[in-house]
Write a structure and sequence with these properties.
Length: 346
């Protein structure tokens, strides 16, 4: 069957242009970036204009492709408000190679510094910057084939890269993103990346993929803290049971214990600090596998085990801190949808 053609983007479909005035002034310093080789002085699409068009895409879901963005740039309404001309598909595709992203990164850093620090509220007991950490894989085209995974099956290859994101939850913005090959091995392993980038005075909220004693030790040695989901089959000896409060029970906390985890004889295979395990009630589920109906994620027995080095923070807050970790999943899901334009441009 012939492919169904998408409707042309009309001026009435584009919204939010009144909010771009300030960004125009902020991005104006990028205007000359990438013009070094333009000896004829005939470049029509400049870096600041390209950034405005990408922002237009981000805030207008009706634009779903590079061609849709090109159509939007033809609208008189867009050209007047953003100060851009018609952008060809060729110039949009070329932009990812012509424009150096470093000046834009500096602007992003300056803008992020203007975001006020939120009031910690009930999380003031943590005393550190609450930072969620996660790694997410993004598919790309074959021009980044050097980042390929090992063959999957039937001689098929997977081309991808991985973004290791650190996200300040209360401020609502990423503070660091490290890019590695998609295969999580060696220096590209999520735990290895975080261990090399640990900063002081942070409380890292991490999932069970980061359950590694050496990483926990590095975080504590850097004068930071962690809340890490331990694996369901974790083995440990209970050193002390802590009494639960009504607030803990209301949050679903089942137990709060200081434990001895890891090898009791090998100092390299155990934490070098006291560890606390807070167990929180959850909905149990069984993983059905990749090709069967049901959940494909790791199964759980209905108990989430949270390991932390924070001994003085109430157990209910340990549970609430881990709940906050899912904010980074939403952020990365949004980032996944926004990489489509980059893939098309490549």
């Amino acid at each position: 069957m012939p492919r169904r053609q998408r409707a042309e983007i009309a001026a009435r479909d584009i919204t939010g242009l009144k909010h771009f005035a300030r960004m125009q002034s902020v991005l104006r310093r990028l205007h000359s970036v990438g013009c070094g080789r333009d000896r004829a002085k005939n470049r029509e699409l400049h870096f600041d204009q390209y950034c405005l068009l990408i922002l237009l895409h981000m805030f207008n879901p009706v634009i779903t492709s590079m061609r849709g963005l090109q159509q939007a740039s033809e609208l008189k309404k867009v050209q007047k408000k953003l100060g851009v001309g018609r952008a060809s598909l060729g110039s949009l595709s070329e932009s990812v190679q012509v424009f150096d992203p470093e000046p834009l990164k500096r602007i992003a850093t300056e803008l992020s510094a203007q975001i006020p620090q939120p009031k910690p509220g009930e999380f003031s007991a943590v005393g550190k910057t609450i930072t969620a950490v996660d790694g997410c894989v993004f598919d790309t085209v074959a021009r980044v084939a050097e980042l390929a995974w090992l063959p999957k099956a039937k001689e098929k290859w997977k081309h991808a890269y991985r973004l290791h994101t650190q996200f300040e939850i209360l401020r609502g913005l990423p503070t660091r993103i490290d890019v590695t090959p998609g295969k999580p091995k060696g220096k590209a392993d999520e735990r290895a990346v975080l261990e090399q980038t640990v900063e002081a005075d942070r409380c890292y909220i991490i999932d069970r993929g980061y359950a590694k004693f050496a990483l926990w030790n590095s975080i504590v040695d850097a004068s930071s803290s962690y809340v890490c989901r331990a694996r369901d089959n974790s083995v440990y000896d209970v050193v002390a049971d802590r009494q639960l409060t009504p607030a803990d029970r209301d949050e679903g906390v089942l137990s709060d214990q200081v434990v001895q985890i890891g090898s009791p004889t090998n100092t390299n295979s155990r934490p070098n600090h006291p560890v606390r395990i807070v167990i929180v009630e959850a909905v149990p589920h069984i993983s059905r596998g990749k090709y069967r109906r049901g959940s494909t994620g790791p199964q759980t027995d209905g108990k989430i085990r949270l390991a932390t080095n924070m001994l003085d923070v109430p157990a209910e807050l340990i549970s609430k801190l881990y709940r906050l970790r899912w904010v980074i999943e939403v952020s990365q899901a949004e980032c996944t949808s926004r990489t489509r334009l980059y893939q098309l441009a490549c």
